[in-house]
Design a protein that fits this description.
Structural class: alpha/beta
Distance between the termini: 64 Å
Order of helices and strands: EHEHEHEEHEEEHEHHEHHHHHH
Radius of gyration: 21 Å
Strand content: 15-25%
Oligomer: single chain
């Protein structure tokens, strides 16, 4: 009996230096019935030509060229064009281990899960240091059971957040119209994962490292300033809380996500003053807009803070923006 097909979606943007390495790791998979969708997202280097060359080497490689729209739009195109029963997303600068697809597929097949998740390895490009991020133990069950037993620890360790350590039944995405939020360049992957969890009939967690995340500190999206980061945080929080409501999650999970939302919002306000390049009047305007917004004000009332964050919390709650403005400039 022939194995079920897996569609591997790789967004490609100016990836001429890393793409071949990524595709080679896919060619080495012990699971052979895959198709590779290379989505050229308006690359300005030689990535487009490289994609075409890779497509000519293997009939399982399919190519799409599109105008630049961001990684989410590329992934969404892949969801629409894929033909496999399962989807696997990978970034163009990362690599898979030889048994990645085989292991995740076997776990999903045996358990009947819609979602199969694995651990991963951070490979720091500058130092070649490898650090494993693994789940504590195996898990197989429903989404509600996962929230009650495992989600809190996995969320804190950012294990469940990314899309690229997951094998997902494609029909689940189509039936529930689940896509990546194209209006955001950050947090959209976490929101996507929460939507998948909300609708999944079963989830299987594999306590093995099956994906290699090649980390370049200077180029990492988390280290960059994003103009609508606060709105992206709201999008993630709302999608996560929707999942919690559907699965009747415990109140402590809401509190954990609320604390994450507040903490990252405070960090963003700091980045506005440190990294944004805004003029001084724009910095104050953004501080007032975000700090006085109703979602953040409500979240601050539930947020337990210590040290410097306690001071920031009190100043924001009392809308002492002028004092905060001077504090951020001093810092």
């Amino acid at each position: 009996m022939r194995e079920t097909k897996i569609s591997i979606v790789v967004p490609v943007y100016n990836a001429e230096k890393e793409l071949q390495r990524c595709v080679d790791s896919i060619f080495r998979q012990s699971f052979s019935n895959w198709e590779l969708l290379l989505i050229d997202d308006g690359s300005r280097d030689s990535s487009s030509t490289l994609c075409d060359r890779l497509g000519a080497q293997d009939t399982r490689v399919r190519i799409w060229h599109k105008e630049n729209g961001g990684v989410s739009s590329a992934r969404n195109l892949g969801i629409c064009k894929a033909e496999g029963e399962y989807l696997f997303f990978t970034d163009s600068d990362d690599t898979l281990f030889p048994d990645t697809l085989a292991t995740l597929y076997q776990k999903a097949k045996v358990s009947g899960a819609d979602l199969s998740v694995c651990g991963f390895t951070y490979l720091v490009e500058q130092t070649k240091e490898c650090v494993d991020n693994l789940p504590e133990k195996a898990f197989c069950g429903g989404g509600k059971e996962y929230l009650e037993e495992r989600f809190l620890s996995d969320f804190r360790r950012e294990f469940f957040n990314p899309p690229w350590n997951k094998l997902i039944r494609r029909e689940l995405l189509l039936e529930n119209d689940i896509r990546f939020g194209e209006e955001f360049a950050i947090c959209e992957d976490m929101a996507f994962s929460m939507q998948v969890l909300e609708k999944s009939k079963g989830i299987c967690v594999v306590p093995e490292s099956l994906y290699c995340y090649h980390y370049k500190e200077a180029e990492n999206l988390v280290n960059r300033f994003h103009e609508n980061y606060y709105e992206a945080l709201l999008y993630f929080r709302d999608r996560t809380w929707q999942c919690f409501r559907t699965l009747q999650a415990k109140q402590e999970l809401y509190a954990e996500v609320n604390a994450c939302f507040v903490g990252k919002s405070l960090m963003y306000l700091h980045k506005i003053y440190r990294d944004s390049g805004y003029e001084e009047t724009r910095k104050y305007a953004e501080l007032k807009r975000i700090g006085g917004s109703l979602p953040l004000q409500n979240a601050l009332r539930e947020y337990r803070a210590t040290g410097k964050r306690r001071l920031l919390r009190e100043l924001l709650l009392h809308k002492r923006f002028r004092l905060l403005d001077r504090l951020y400039r001093w810092r």
